[in-house]
């Protein structure tokens, strides 16, 4: 059986391209992982997610443990089979969404207890339980259970939170056990404080993981502050292991993240925006519900090869969006995911060719042009 | 250019199989037409509707004239291009949905005025305007503007209604004009009264149409009454032209209709049921939200080759339905449309082989077995 491993192929500045090998297939990096919250990337069939170029999906431990439950998915043969996606899956630890979605949370050194946002039932997640859930799901890349320190956090609060996450990282590592072909990723915390990021990185390296995430960003600090942290935080993590920036982001966040040495990203933005009519193209963002599209026979982006752009006009997409037709979510999610994967492919090629700076310049220049003129 | 024509290939009792030729492609009969109300078969990409075996879609004049408007669709190149379906499209006349959906209807010999259910705007449909709208849409098979007589109707009310529809049929024919490659279908009315059905059929034949619909059924009269009318009504219509039973129906309605000489059907049932979790299989109807499916690793129907059955368990479909995920509507609509098209294909083959009676017996026997036993 193939083991989990990471081959770094090329670097260009801090930007890196390579391949994460797993028994379920390769992941080309830098990689964008579409989010399949409840065992589906919303409005997409998995074969179509694959057709956009995705090598790996993200599943949400919090949602799946509540419904249909990890035990049920395990009995049905695991998450891959359940959702008809045989390629790699990364699962988060559940911690982030406990804090953002559940009611009546109570956190202690042991873990966190909370009430389900679906039916009010009482649950507990500890590092050990998170490892168990992710094992039941059959996740290929398992994330340590941590506390995502909110922003802004006073320095002493951030430090306390980070240190607890590092103790939980050790407990996660211990509970994960020996699972050939599966990976456990540690998560760096430390908010916007360089010394805490350093302490966190050292703690994680001392434990040892198959990959390392930069956590605690994209929580409201803004792009400028995020990039300031990313100017140093990824460098603190081992160069020979994948680096994953959690919950990021907008297209320019991805370019800025890759530039700073990030290999993996996930975000609901392209799929969620597909359902709300916000469209990403080379020329920035457009909103399909705007009346300017009502009679426009042109595609979203004439250079895009996704089904929405190949076969439908802006006028059609405007119509089905206004009529609240499901096909609007289907086509626009497909387009956005396709755009995100094309962006990642473009960055991978540019890094391999040593032209990442030129890629970045063109990326920003095209966006500065804005959407095509109305007819 | 291919003209519109109908080749009757085989008959078996009253059941018929053949091909309707149109410039946009052949329609194998008996045919089931999925309904694409607002320029989309809900929750389906058009290429996937085609993959289920559909040769033709139905579009709704009422919905499309209100949004995005027939004029806008014409400016964008017609309905086929707009919705990315290059095969034949049949459009209804708008009359039925004016009566069922709009507000403040007022009917006269001239036509009907009404307020839009979307924005309250005032509109009029006359036979002439209905022909104009269907021409703007680019419909391949155009339906006469008529009044669908409600059920039950006193005999004198039904007669008056039918006779007005026959005058409107003449006006529709006159307004349709000379459109090679396009067809106009007349619609028989007359409620449940045999003499009125006869009078209506004679009036339509005197005008002359490329096909004939049996209208005014599936409006609450029940299957037994509908079949009683179908025991004689289709025979009154020309044998060398397609016969279309409007707005029908359940799987056993289709079998009973074909048995009585019907060639074409349309109904929202398979697509609407796909969104509400009602599933049609060889073994009848099952409801995916039933808790019995929660842990069931088996497909909806092990003999079905649709994507929902090939790649997903009942447990998965139950989960995504309960979680209100869009993929539930996508997969279950696909399954239902696939089942309907397989049913039509089975009937076509049986008629060609002269084994329609045996087909019908097996159809009812399989349904009588009911769904597979819970695990």
Biggest sheet details of chain A: 8 strands, parallel
Biggest sheet: strand arrangement of chain A: 4-14-13-12-11-10-6-5
Helix content of chain A: 40-55%
How many distinct beta strands of chain A?
16
Average pLDDT value of chain A? 97
* Unreliable residue runs of chain A: none
Largest interface: A-B, 36 and 36 residues
Structural class of chain A: alpha/beta
Gyration radius of chain A (Cα, Å) is 20 Å
Outline of chain A: globular
Strand content of chain A: 15-25%
Oligomeric state of the chains present here:
homodimer
Structural topology:
The structure is a homodimer of 375-residue chains.
Chain A: E1 5-12, E2 15-22, E3 25-29, E4 31-33, H1 46-51, E5 57-59, H2 61-66, H3 70-75, H4 79-83, E6 89-91, H5 95-101, E7 103-107, E8 112-115, E9 122-125, H6 127-137, E10 141-143, H7 155-176, E11 183-188, H8 194-207, E12 211-214, H9 223-230, E13 243-245, H10 251-259, E14 264-266, H11 269-276, E15 278-281, E16 284-287, H12 307-311, H13 314-322, H14 326-353, H15 356-369
Parallel strand pairs in A: 4-14, 5-6, 6-10, 10-11, 11-12, 12-13, 13-14
Antiparallel strand pairs in A: 1-2, 2-3, 7-8, 8-9, 15-16
